[in-house]
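Worked example 4.2. Below are the chains of a multi-component assembly; read each line carefully before continuing.
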Amino acid sequence: MNLAAVALVSLATLLVGFYGLRLSRTTSDFYVASRTVSPLVNASAIGGEYLSAASFLGIAGLVLAGGADLLWLPVGWTGGYLVLLVLVSAPLRRSGAYTLPDFAEARLESMAVRRTASLLVVLIGWLYLLSQLQAAGRVLTGMIGAPGWLGGPLVAAVVIIGVLGGGMRSITLVQAFQYWLKLTALSVPLVFLLAAWRRDGAPGIDDQTWLLPLTGDRQLYSTYSLILVTFLGTMGLPHVLVRFYTNPDGRTARRTTAVVLVLLGVFYLLPAVYGALGKLYASDLVGSSTGADGVVLELPRRLVGGVLGEVLTALLTAGAFAAFLSTSSGLTVSVAGVIGQDLLRGGVRSFRAATVPALGVPLLLALLMPTPLPVATMVGMAFALSASTFCPLLVLGIWWRGLTAAGALVGLLTGGALTGAAVVWTVAAGPGDGWAAVLLAQPGAWTVPLTFLVMVAVSRRTERPAGVARTMVRLHTPERLRLDRGDWRPRRI
Amino acid sequence: MSERRVTVTSPRTGAARRRPSPGTREIDEQTRLGEVYMSALVRSQLRLSLFVCTLLALLVGGLPLLLLLVPPVREARFLGLPLPWLLLAGAVYPVFAGIGWWYVRQAERNERDFAELVERK
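Applying the procedure described above to all two chains together yields the following C-alpha cells:
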C-alpha cells in the first residue's frame, strides 16, 4: 500500500505538471509563471515548497529525541516569514529581479557581487537538496523495503521530469497542491491517533528533563543561535525568494506573505503532537536504525493497527514523499535558474541543461556520503549559511542607501567563508562538547552580526553605486504611482 | 523632457493615465524636495518594520530567558498541559499571523499617505 501511495503522489505531481505545461510557453512563463498567480494560490505554493521533509518528518523526530528545546525549530521557521514580510517582501518584488543575483546586480550595479551571490545560491541550494535526497532514501527504505540508494534517484527522476516539462508555472500549481496534500496527510491520521490515545486512558509524560525547556548545558546559547538563524535565514533561501516574483506587485507580495504565516502556523501545530505521542509510544526509535525521523510513519502501526493503521501509514508516506518532491522541485528550479543564467547563455534551453548539474551534484553527494546526517541538521546548516550571507545583503541593500558593492562583496565572502568552514568542520569532526564545538555547530549567533558589521564598515569607506537614489524609488514606491524607476531589467527577457 | 518618459506602471490603473503631478516630478528629477519625499517614505516604512522586529525580539527572544529564570512559568500547567509547550507549540502561531496582518495594514496605509502626498497639486 505504501508503494501505491508513493506511485500515486508521483503520478499526480506529474499530471498537474503537464497540465501546467500547456500554459507555459515563453521564458517569462517558464521562470515566474508570468506573475499572474493569486495570493492564496501563491501562498499555498510557498507553503508547499517550504514544508520539506524536515518539517513533515524531522521536527517530530527531533522533538521525540530532544524534547521541548526543539519546539523552537518550527517557531523559527514560521517567524522567519514574519521577518521576511516586514523587511523584504514588497521591496524585493518591486525590484523586478527574478533571483537573488538579479537583486544584487540591480541594487549594487556590480557583476562581481552578482557572481558571488550566484555561487552562494548554488551552494545553499545543493546543501538543502542533499538533505532532501538523503532523507528520501531513508524513508523509502523503511516504508516500501526499497534499497537505501533508490530513494534519492527516484525523487530526482520525478522532479526532473516535472521541471523539464513545465518550469515554474507547472511548479506553482504542483506546489499549491502539495501544501494541501501535506496538511491533509498529517492532520487526518492525527485525529485517529489522538482517538486511540484517549481510548488508552490519555496517559501523560513523566520525563521532566524532556518536557521542560533549557535543561542542558549551553542550551541557552544554542537556543538563541537557532532562533537567530531561522528567523533571519528564511529570507535568503533561494527557493523561497523566487516565489515572490510570481506576485503581480509589491502589495500582493506582502499579502501573500501574510497568508503564508497563517498556512504555516496551521501546519506547525501538528508535528509537536506527533513528537509527544512518539515519546509515549515509540521512544525506542531514538538511536535505532530508522532513527527518530521515522516516528511519524511508525505511530499509526503502533497505536491504531489493522487495515486502518496501514491506510494511515500510506497517507503519511504519500505526504512525506510529497514533501521531498515539492522542496526538491523548488530548489532545482532556483539553482538551475541561476546556473542557466550565469554560467550558460540564459533562456529556456540553458535552463533545461542546467537542471542536470542542479540536481545531479547533490544526488551524487547523497549517494557517496556514507553516513547521512539527520535531515534537520543539514537543513539547519543551509539556514545558517543563508542568514550570514543573504540576510545582511537584503536588509542593508533595501533599507540603507550606504551599502556599496565592495561592502556587499567583502561581507558575502566573510559570512560565506566562516559559516562554510564551520559547517565543514562540524560535518567532518562530528558532534563534540565544549564551547568551541558548540560555537561551530551553531555558528549563526556570531557569523550573522559579524557579516553585518563587515558590510557596514567596508561600505562606509567605499563609493555608493551611481543609481542608488533611483533604485530606492523602485524598491519602495507603490506601483500605481507614475515614477521613473530606472531602466534596469533582468537580463533574460 | 517629461513628455518622453515611458509609463512603467500597469496601464490598467487610473494613475497611469493622469498627467504627472508635481510631487512625482520632484522625485523623478531627484530634487531636494524629491529626496525629502523619498526619505520620508523609506523612514516611515523602516520605523514600522523595526517596530515589528523589536516586538518579535522581545516576545521570542524574551521567552527562553523567561523560561530559564522564572521556574514557576516553566513548570506551570494549563488545562493539564505544560505552559512552555502551550506557548511554543500553539500560542505563538496565531500571534505571528496577527502581527503579520497588522503590519500589512499599516504598511499599506503608509503607502497611501505617501501617494496622497506626492499626488497633491
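Take a moment to check your reading of the output against the notes. The two ends of chain A are 46 Å apart (CA to CA). The mean pLDDT of chain A is 83.
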